[in-house]
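Hi, here's the filled form for the chain we discussed.

Project: internal
Contact: R.S.
Residues: 431
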Amino acid sequence: MKKISFFLIICFIIFPFTLYAEFIYAKYGFEEIHFGDEYNVHEEVRFDNVHENLNNDVNNNGNSPAKKPFQIRDRGFEIGIFVNANVANNYLSIEQIFQETIELNLDNLANGFNINLGIGVAPLYFRYNSRKGWGFGLSTVVDASGILGASGKLLSLDEATDEKSDLSGALFASVGIDTFFKIKSLKVRLRPAMYYTLAYIKPDLSYTNNNSAFGVNYDIRIYEAFSLDGFPDNFLDNFKLDASPGFDVSFGLEFPFPYFDIGLDIINIPLLSSSLSKYTQYSGSMGNDELEGLSLGDFFSSFKTDNKSGSGEETVNIDRPFKAFLWVNWRPFKGNPLFTITPLVGFSINQLYVEPFSMEGGLNVCINLGNIFIVKAGVNYMDRLWVNSLNLALNIRVIEVDVGVDIRSQEFAESWKGGGIGVNVGLKFGW
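And the returned structure, exactly as it came back:
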């Protein structure tokens, strides 16, 4: 078996901690990884947006430049690096996990069992702001996305026919060019990007329990862009990238008013899908095809298993998750950017899920003290997770340190109990 296949089996199947992180180039938050002033990651309204509000030359009546509060001037050029990690589940709280004895309520499994784990890094990012209404930047990102969602009917052995469970994942590497410009008061942001899919899991996991049959059927294909055979000694000698790149574009519109800004962001509009062709396949079934007239002893004695593995080639096309959001930055104290409230609403389409479509939204508040110390808190439903976050930024212009933590879960109530946790750190340097 290929080493890369064994590694992915460990990550995504044997240990049910699947990778889950979507480093989307939206403006919704420092919560994950920043990619510059123009497209930061979702889940929170980005700190950079607060910087933008401080620079608006609109007073309360919208006719002439307003008197600006004291602030540190934004950097004209900056470079940075950002790292994020998070884990979430809908069953156990952090407190329960670290107890000496873990108590499990099996009745709760009827609601299903979900685990999300994410790790990502932006190793290269820079931005130039001309301060004349336009600018550009570049960012590279390596991120993993994945899910494990076992059906409640499967876990409780309830009656069902072809009940699907989520089990999927993808590993992306991308580079994007961030640009922004203004048309009068309207700010336009564009981010074309090229990405490679380095690994992708395409599963078909179903459960049936009715009067005629009982069992689980699975067919899992693990697509790989390259093999780890010979790693680490001869890895580079044998390295060959068996993948074609994909292209997508993100854009945003932002229009200022005296007391609020309104905007629209559309992220990862697919232009050309990335593709993989080489895969390792694991398929099989467990159960009984005929139940009528079987006693309990006959049921177990006739229980069948059929497991197969192999490899092959068949092209699969992968798009990065698509998102669209409408948001408002409201400055309730006569337009003063000291305090900002930001509601947002939108949706996403993610082909990793059995049901790709999902609504998303959130509410965030931000306190900005002179563009030096920024505190932000929010409650958001993003990527099918409830995320309750607190983010801090300390900016002395030549360097900015961003740190954020959150508690999260697939269920709203469990998110406040600590069904998961996320941590992110960012550093920016410039002048």
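Let me know if anything looks off before we file it.
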